[in-house]
Each structure stands twice: as C-alpha cells, then as structure tokens.
Amino acid sequence: MYSRRRFQWAMLAPVILLLIGLTVFPFIYTVSSSFTDHYYLAGDSKQFIGIANYKRLLQDQLFLQAIWNTVKFMLLAVSIETALGLAIALLVESMRRGKKVLRVSLLIPSLLPPVTVALIWQMMLSNHNGIINHLLGWFGAGPFNFLMDVNLAFRTILFIDIWQWTPFAFLLLYAALQAVPRSQYEAARVDGAGKLNIFTHITLPNIIPTLLLVILLRTIDTFRLFDKVNILTGGGPANSTMTVTQYIYRHGVFNLQVGYGAAASVIMVALVLAFTVFYIKRSIGGSEQDGHR
Amino acid sequence: MKKRMVALVSIVTAVSIMAGCQSSSSTSANEPTKLVIAARGGTHVTAMEAVKETFEQEHNAQIEILGLEAADLKQKVSLDSTSKNGAYDLIMADDPWMPEFGEAGIFANLSELGVEADADFEESSLALGKHPYETGDLYALPFAGNVQLFFYNKELLDKHSLSVPQTWEEVVNAANTIQASGDGAGYVIRGQQGNPIVSDFLPIFWAHGGQVFDDNWNAQLDSEAGRKALDTYINLLAAGVNYEQTDIVSSVSEGRAAMALGWPSWFISEGKASANYAPIPSKASASDAEASTGMIGNWMMGVAANSENKELAAKFLTFITSSESQKVMAQHGGVPTRKSVYLDSELSAKFEHFPVQLEALQNSVARPRTTKWSLVEEALGAELSAAIAGTKSIEDALASANHAINQIMQ
Fold it and tell me: Where does the ABC transmembrane type-1 domain start and stop, copy by copy (chain A) (predicted)?
C-alpha cells in the first residue's frame, strides 16, 4: 500500500513541479510584486510600498475606462458569439447536404493566429486601399474610418472578434448537439411537440453543460483581448478600445513598471474570477454530482 | 564478463569525450567570433546586410542581425540587460529611449572602448548618443539619421496655384482650399493614439513656440501655444482626414490628399520620392518667430554593457557608422548620419532629398530627454486623441495632459 502511494506521488511529481513552477510561483511573485515599486531596469532596488499601486490604479481614470471597456466587450462578445455559434450549429445540424464542407470552412477563422487576423483586417479596413471600403463604395456608402473613428473603433474590434471566435462556439455546441439522444426527439415528435418545444425542452437541457463551458472559455478569453487592440488601435481613439491587458502591457511590459503592472494583473485576475466563478462552480458541481452517481 | 564490458564502455566514452574536447578546442581558434545585433527590422537590417561581409572577412567574425519590431526590440533588450552575459553584443535604440537606457547602464561607455566622437557626425545626431544628453559620455553612435519632413503632392498644389506653405497658417488655408474644391483631402493627420499622434502634433506645437517642459520639468502643454497648436491640428483634420502610415503615404503619393508630415523612408526609396518634400514649416504665421520643428528620430547603436565581445563589437560599431559603410548602405535604404555622406556629390546626384534632409537634421528638435518619455508620450497621446475625437475640448484635453504628465514626472 505504502509503495503504491509512493509510486503515485512519483508519477504525479513532474506535474506538481510544473504546476508550482509555471502557476504557483508566478502567481505568488506577481502578488508580492504588486506591493512594490519594482521597475525592471532599476535591478533589485525595489521597495515595499503597501497598497499604493492599487490606490493609484483605482484613481486612474484610464484604468477604470479600460475595465469598463473590457467588461462591455466581454458581455457583448460572449453573448453574441454564443448565440451565433448555437444558431449556426443548429442550422448545420439540420442540413442534409454539405455538412462536412461547411463544418471545415466555418472553422478557418478560429484556426488563424490572432496577430495574423489583426493584420489581415488592418489591410481590409484600410481607408484608402482596403477592400471593405471599396465594396461599400460600390453601394454608395463610406469610406469609413473604422479604426480611428471614436464611434466605430470599438464595434469594429468587437466584430472582428465575433468573426474569429463564433466558429469556436459553433464547434463545441455542434459536438454537443451530436450527443443528444435521437430517441428523445423521436418521442417528442410522436407526442406532437413543435420545433420550439423540442428546442427548449430537449435540445437546450441536453447542451447546457457545453453552453456553460463555451461561456466560461470565451469569458476568460475575451478578458485577455490584446493583439487586435494593440495592432489595430493602440487603445484609441480617445481610449475607446483601451482594455485591461493593453493597459498592463503598456505599463508592465513596454514601460517595465513591473510592480504597477502586477497590481493591474491581480485586479484583472480578480475580475475574471468574479465573472467566471458561477460557471466554474457549476462545472465542478456538475462533475462532482456525476462522480457520486 | 559484465563488469569488463561496463569498464570498456566507460573507457571508450571517456576517450571520446576527451577527443571531442580536444577537437573542439583545436577548431575554436579558427572559428569566427559571433556578434549578435538586436536591430530594428526593415531597411536598417537590409542596409547592414549589404556591408557586413567586409567586416566579417577582415575580423574573422560572424554577424547575426535580429530584426525586431520597435516595441519588441525595447522589451527584449531591457529584459536581457540584467543578465550577466547578454544575448546581444550590439543594440539599436530609438533616440527617445536613450535617457532610460543610459540611466540603466544598458550600453557600454564607448570612450572606454576606444570609440571617439567624430566631428563628421551631424551634431544634433551625435548629441543623442551622449548620456546625459549633449554633455555626457558617449554611449551610442547615430546609425540612421531620420528626421521628419513635410510631404506634399505638387500637382494638387499647382492645380490650385498654391506654393509650398511656409507657415502653419498657410498650411491650413491651402488645406481648406483643396478640401473645398473636392479634389482630395487637404491634409492628412496621423492621429492614432500613442506615439503616432504625438509625433504628428509636436512639430506644430513647437512651431507655435511651445515646449513640452519648462526648465524644472513642469508640463507646459496647457499654455497659449498648446491651445493654438491643438486648434490648428483640429482645423487640419477638419480640412482633411485621419489616416495611419500606409494610407498617408498612398493618399499623398497618388494625389488623393495634398499634405502630411512623415519620415523620409515612408516616401523615399532608392533615391526616388513618391511625393515632394520640404522642411516642416517653422512658424505659426508670417508674423511669428521661427522655431525648429523637424522632429529628430534617429536610430542609435551601441555596445551592450553585458556583451562578452565588447572590443570586437566596438570595432563593428566604428565600421558600420563609418563614412564608407554609410555610402554603401545609403544605396540599400540606409539613412546617413554623417555630413560627408550627405554632401558627397555622387550620392547627392542620386538622392536628391539629401540636402533637404541634412538641413532638416541641422534644424531638428529632439523630444524631451527624460527617462519617463514613454509614459509622457502615452499620456499626451491619449489626451490628443480625445481632443481630435471630440470627446474632450481643447482646454480640457490640455489641462488633463498637463496634470497626467506632472504626475508622471513627480
């Protein structure tokens, strides 16, 4: 028994060490740095300054705007991507022909690296030579300054994110739809249930765990929105696309104010947890219940 | 038998290792010494690649050039600077980074490595490599002599019988005339938040007699000069458009916009300019005093303080910034920093913009020399962006900029 337990620990040791090295240590280091004035180029001369970084952050209008922009972006992107992903999944599921081709082609945007996506859209949205403004011109509209107009920049980045990540939601939800027992549909049809009733009483309850997973993953991911903003707008115009990650990058990475950037990161982690704790609890609760069954 | 086998294998392994060590030490004497350059990507790398072979042959060296995007370069160099043995032997730096890099000891003192300040370098460029600015020891040499110029589409101006504007008042008037005619945008601003809008606005601010800081490092944006300059900038936007770099170049070059500020390398390639150019107007209006307005934006190069090959790196730095190298590099997109190269008759005949660029360099202005310039630029850029977007009034934006910058400088 003893040797078996020792063997189990030996097998787990590499993973535990990796977890400590890549997650636990960086987390502790980040939290401890957030209470210092650590400036990377100043070497080891950092000093403990208590909660001064947090105070400064919460008094900084730009940081507060970055939080608001990020939360707004997260709520809009996650709800639209999930709804669209579900709609497309239902549509593809109901198709008799062309499923395979559509499944693969729909996934292409989510396979592209975010930087590539940002650069492609930068070219397409160009005021002068971009294809989008050319196309709009044929219909007598535009040209629009998508990335530098304060009324358009946020929506443009939101649109690009939806374009890229709706296929991800589609993929997971489509897989969940495949797992719904056919017998339930057949029984409902025999009982004379309509399409709406079948969806709300059979499809939706069956795919709820996956739906929550999609929401959880997209919530975490949209909070980390960075590449598109950094490449396309730099947080502007007038800070309308400034996100928390862009703020952290400018202060903590580009300007090397490690302490200040760490404090902003801790706040961001707290926010992500606040928005995802419900889903995480549901997921853990769900798997524990499954385990007890 | 088993023990004998183990002993045999051990002996063979030991002998192999020793032989390996011997062979590696015997070949290392002839192996070239490798120098790694952390460089700004693009034409700078192409220019260096064009001349490096001569140095490699003369010094039995191997030059590896890593071309990086500006923000990436700053980040990588900064992170590497705390290592005992650095990954880079030579480092390129945008000139506003020099105070921060100088303070952090990222560059080796060039005088101690036998590299002396050469009078042939344009003074305004050479001053950027000293820490403290202008008066201190030499830590980097000017590698690329960028300076902002005023670009215009001659056909559009001629069509409306307009001469090249000499003041910002004339620029606004010309822009209004062209915009009203429907022939194209009168002026293109580069209003992306951050470095672009700050670089685009400061020459206008300087022309109005403004200074970002007073002698005690108090912000001076919220001033008469600041308000007039920002009003001019917003008027220019009203008489034109707000584009990013690629669209600025194509619109002015193709005659869909009349005027813009820009860096030479955007419009001029291999001696051919896609738009006409002139020094940036140096006055707000005809009755105002002249001011230096051409923003200098040199790329500097220095020896990394944690390089293991400082002497050889210093030799390469001397080589790559020499008159001979700069003449060759100019043919491959390099931007000279030496007067003798700009005045070379053969090159001047091919690169017609050299006299204008030299004049602009000689009348150039460096951005304030503070270790906190990146943060200042960030704060100012956000407020300027708010002003042109109309989310803040000119007064509010400048007051906020002043407040934010003063907080940064505390």
Answer: 67-279
